[in-house]
Every structure is written in C-alpha cells, then in structure tokens.
C-alpha cells in the first residue's frame, strides 16, 4: 500500500525555544518500491521516520496509507497509533534491538504472536522468512552467538513477519562493513518488493543505493 506523508512538520521543545526537526515534508512512497532518504546527521531523517511510523505525533500534517483515512495526525490517540504500528508497519533500526534471551526463530514468533497469528502459522511463517534472509541454519541461535550482519538479518526478517504495508528502515548498515552493508540493502529492498510494501530507507552511504527506486535529500528538516 502506498505511503503518503503530507505536509508533515515536527517541532521539538528545546529549552525556552523550539527546534523544527521536520519542516513541511510531503512525500509519496509507492508500494513495492524503495525510496532512499539521504541527508547529513541532524537533518531530520530519523524524526521523519518516527512520524511516518507513528512513534511520534506530527506537530502538523498527516500520514496516510493507500487511499484511506489518515492513520497518524497531530491528534491520533496513542493506542490507535500503537495498533497501526503493530499491524501495518515494520521497522528496522540502526541496531538490531533483539531480545538477548530469545532465539532467532522466537524473535519472529513473538512478533507474530503480538500480531495475533495462530501458533502453527507463526512457526511456518517465521521459518520461511529466516530462510529468505539466509539464516535457516541459525534459527535456534540466540543473538549473542550471531555476527552483526546475521543479527541485522534477523531484525529484517522480524520486520517483515507481519506482512507490513510499510517498511521503515533507519541506517541498517552503519554497524556493518561495506560489502555486508550492500548485501543487507539489496536483501531488504527485494523482500519489500516481493511483499509489495512501501519502503522508506534512511542511509548515509550512497554506494549501497544500486537497488533503490528513488532518492530524496533532506536538509535542515526540508526536502531539497
Ligand atoms: P538525523 O536522523 O537526520 O540525524 P534526527 O531526526 O535524529 O536527524 O534529528 C533532527 C534534529 O532534531 C536534530 O537537531 C536533533 O538534535 C533533534 N532531535 C532529535 N530527536 C529529538 C528529541 N527527542 N528531542 C529534541 N530534539 C530532538
Ligand atoms: Mg538518524
């Protein structure tokens, strides 16, 4: 489903003053495609993703999926935002943020469980996705015994386990070497396309961008 960010502004309180982290951004990400968001540190990339994913309410503007009603607005109740986040959005962050005590398979099953899937379905789907990210042999390993690249692959599989409409990926390769980083970007881009998800990818590394459909640049919170 297409992702529409319409006139989004995000203002943070900053002592006596305010800081405009996102400044009137309008962006359309078609389903099945990846739009890469580039910009210097502090330009508002993570803030824009936080609004697009309902982690932070916009100060003004809206986020809409497909041609439905807006899902995130300045007045969206937190419980509504959480439900949309859980059922329709997948996130991959800079750090994989895995649960140390759970195996790769269990990380995925936990999310499926939260999304209300039946146990048999959960396991089959989780194994299928671990296979898709090349981790089938590591399904029963905990994060502590996996490499950085493998952990990020688990995080990617977990983000896709609920078949999200929208995939939001924030600098997933910053802890990886270049070759592994490129592989990860290609992997997540192709999985998003297969699932027909709209994907917004934040990156600082232009050389990993061979597989994306569109590039947009952010500077001081504005698209340039
Ligand atoms: P990027 O991801 O491009 O590095 P961010 O979205 O993290 O940029 O930050 C944009 C601006 O907003 C920066 O000036 C940053 O200091 C500020 N900022 C980010 N998060 C917060 C917050 N929770 N509270 C106040 N200011 C913030
Ligand atoms: Mg950031």
Automatic annotation (TrEMBL):
GO terms for cellular component: plasma membrane. CDD domains: ABC_MJ0796_LolCDE_FtsE (cd03255). Pfam families: ABC_tran. Keywords: ATP-binding, Nucleotide-binding, Transport. The keyword NAD does not apply. Residues 3-224 form the ABC transporter domain. Residues 59-78 are annotated as: Disordered. One of its GO terms (molecular function) is transmembrane transporter activity. This is Putative ABC transport system ATP-binding protein. It comes from Sediminihabitans luteus.
């Amino acid at each position: 489903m297409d992702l529409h960010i319409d006139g989004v502004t995000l203002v943070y309180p900053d002592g006596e003053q305010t800081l405009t982290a996102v400044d009137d951004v309008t962006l359309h990400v078609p389903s099945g495609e990846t739009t890469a968001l580039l910009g210097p540190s502090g330009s508002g990339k993570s803030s824009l993703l936080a609004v697009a994913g309902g982690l932070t309410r916009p100060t003004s503007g809206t986020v809409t999926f497909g041609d439905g009603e807006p899902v995130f607005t300045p007045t969206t109740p937190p419980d509504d935002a959480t439900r949309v986040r859980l059922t329709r959005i997948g996130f991959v962050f800079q750090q994989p943020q895995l649960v140390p005590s759970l195996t790769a398979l269990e990380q995925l099953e936990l999310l499926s469980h939260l999304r209300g899937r039946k146990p048999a379905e959960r396991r089959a789907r989780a194994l299928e996705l671990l296979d898709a990210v090349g981790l089938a042999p590591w399904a029963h390993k905990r994060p502590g015994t996996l490499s950085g690249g493998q952990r990020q692959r688990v995080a990617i599989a977990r983000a896709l386990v609920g078949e999200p409409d929208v995939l939001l990926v924030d600098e997933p390769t910053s802890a990886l070497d270049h070759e592994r980083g490129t592989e990860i970007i290609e992997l997540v881009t192709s999985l998003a396309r297969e699932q027909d998800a709209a994907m917004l990818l934040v990156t600082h590394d232009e050389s990993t961008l061979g597989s994306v459909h569109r590039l947009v640049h952010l500077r001081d919170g504005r698209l340039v």
